[in-house]
Amino acid sequence: MKKNLTLIILGIVCLVFPLVVRSDYYQHLAIIVLIWVIVGSAWNLLAGYTGQVSFGHAIFFGVGAYTAGIFATKLGISAWWGMMFGGIAAMLIGLFVGWVCFRLRGPYFALGTLAGGEIIRLIATNWESLTDGMVGILIIQSFRSKLPYYYIALLLAFACVFAIHLIMKSKWGYYFVSIRENQEAAESLGINTLLYKNVSLMVSSFFTGMAGAFYMNYMAFIDPEVVFSLHYISIMAILVGIVGGVGTIMGPAVGAFIMVGVQETFRSSFFGLAPAWISQGHAMAFGLLVVFVIMFLANGVVGDWSKIKRYVFRIKPSSVS
Q: Which side of the chain, N or C, has fewer Cβ within a 10 Å radius?
């Protein structure tokens, strides 16, 4: 009951936030957080629940973004239609990535996805007749206000988190976790591990592609160095999952809030209160934050929430009499 009440309050806060906070700047930050909630949750499904750590989620984000952009600039179709097709296109690319990379395991799978991301980035850079190369794709935004973008991002984030929650409560979820814990044991029980790893990857790539397509509609400009970026997209998705809590439903949401907050605090030099050179230190801050989480909160903020409450708020764990 207490957990449901917390979620209801959180939902109400999310719904009324842009009506109370009228600043475009803070509404923009909230939209960016929601995009990372989607990408982080999608990555968490594949890596956190299925045990297949991907370093290449920029592939799906970029494919979704470029699908929406190409729909608008090459086909003359609204980029909002491209948003749905962006998810489908990313899912189809995910199927190909799975066909290639699921032949590998552990770190070799991670390296395979990393290499795949770089290959797709180079293809997007050099296929100028389709992607306009480094010139990028520019479209006209549909709305001048950030309010519609906020509620669309909120709806997508809610749909992503709720869908993953339902999947993890279903038979698929148990199969995913069994693959993460021991793939050989799962196969001995008759689970088609290759099939369910691909199912996890397709769901993950679909939502990541949707986030990328939404990014195209919202930012109105993309180029390969942004949407196929290893450190801006793939590594950020991993950090969101690790900091928030890998293998938890709400972990990526918390991780997205923390990571965007840290990034923006440093980018703005502590909102203008610190020297300008501080803005160059966000990468170091990310590194120190990840080191701290790995050393003291190995399960992330959500996974180790009881430990945080015990040490920070001095709340003792309940004893069983």
A: C
Q: What is the DSSP letter of 221?
A: E
The DSSP H or E segment spanning 222 is strand 221-222
CA–CA distance, 161 with 166 (Å, rounded to integer): 9
The C-alpha atoms of residue 217 and residue 281 are separated, in whole angstroms, by 30
pLDDT digits (tens, 9 = 90+) for 99-143: 999 888 878 888 999 999 999 999 999 999 999 999 999 998 889
| 315 vs 321: CA distance, rounded Å | 18
pLDDT in tens, 224-252: 999 999 988 999 999 999 999 999 999 99
- The angle that helices 58-73 and 79-101 make with each other, rounded to 10 degrees, is 140
Answer positive or negative: Cα dihedral of 211, 223, 120, 235.
negative
E-strand ranges in 93-166 read 137-138
Q: Are 207 and 215 in contact (CB under 8 A)?
A: no
Handedness of CA 70, 126, 32, 270 (dihedral sign): negative
Amino acid found at 89: A
- What Å distances lie between residue 69 and 63, 82, 132, 291, CA to CA? 10, 7, 11, 37
How many residues appear in the chain?
Answer: 321
Q: How crowded is residue 175: how many other Cβ atoms within 10 Å of its Cβ?
A: 22
How many angstroms separate the Cα of 154 from the Cα of each of 63, 151, 236?
21, 5, 20
Burial of 138 per CB tally in 10 Å (0-12, 13-18, 19+) = middle
Q: Which residues contact 218 (CB under 8 A, 6 or more apart)?
A: 31, 35, 141, 149, 153
Grouping H, G, I as helix, E, B as strand and the rest as coil, residue 297 is coil
Phi and psi angles of residue 197, each rounded to the nearest 5 degrees, phi first = -65, -40
pTM of the model: 0.92
Answer yes or no: are the C-beta atoms of 92 and 238 closer than 8 Å. Answer: no
- In single-letter form, the type of residue at position 255 comes to G
Owner of token pair 């439903």: 249
- Check: CB of residue 266 under 8 Å from CB of residue 159: no
